[in-house]
Amino acid sequence: MARHWSFVVCDKRYLYPFAGTLLAAGLLAALVWNDPVQFNRVGNLIIGTGVWMSMRYTLREGIKRYKDAAADSPTVPGTNQLNAEFFNRIGFAIGDAHLQIHGFVLVIVGSVVGSYGDVILRHVFPARF
Asked: Tag placement on the chain: N or C end, fewer CB within 10 Å?
C-alpha cells in the first residue's frame, strides 16, 4: 500500500496527543488566570482536530478531479492480473472509516469541553474558582 500525505496529517498517533496537549494548555490557562472559561476555549480547537481527523478520505480521494475508472475493477482490464490499486482502495477505506470514528470521539470530547468545561472545573476545583 502506498502512503499518502493524508495518512500522516490525519493520523490518530499525532492528533490524540495534540488534543491532549490542548486540554492541558486550557487547564493550565484556567488555573493560571483563575478563569474557568479559558478551558472552554480549547473545546472548539479539539472539535476542529476531530473534524480534521475525519477528513482523511476527502483529503486523499476527494481532491482528485480525474478518477481512473480502471481502478474500480479487481482485475486489470483486458488481462487476468489482480489490480493492486483496487485492493489498496479497499484497505484505505477501512482505515478512513476507523479514523472517522476517532474523529467523532474528538468532536464529542471537544463539544463537552466547549459547553461544560467551566462547570466541570468549578466542580473539580471548588475552592479555586
From this structure: N
What residue spans of 55-83 are helical by DSSP H? 56-57
> Is the separation of the CB atoms in 114 and 47 below 8 Å?
yes
Number of neighbouring beta carbons within 10 Å of residue 60: 19
Q: Tell me if residue 75 falls in helix, strand or coil.
A: strand
pLDDT, one tens digit per residue, over 57-107 is: 777 776 565 666 666 778 887 788 888 777 777 777 788 888 899 999 999
DSSP string, 81-120: SB-HHHHHHHHHHHHHHHHHHHHHHHHHHHHHHHHHHHHH
User: What is the three-class DSSP state of 53?
Assistant: helix
Using CA atoms of 114, 117, 118, 121 in order, give the dihedral in degrees to the nearest 10: -170
Q: Give the DSSP per-residue string, 13-24.
A: HHHHHHHHHHHH
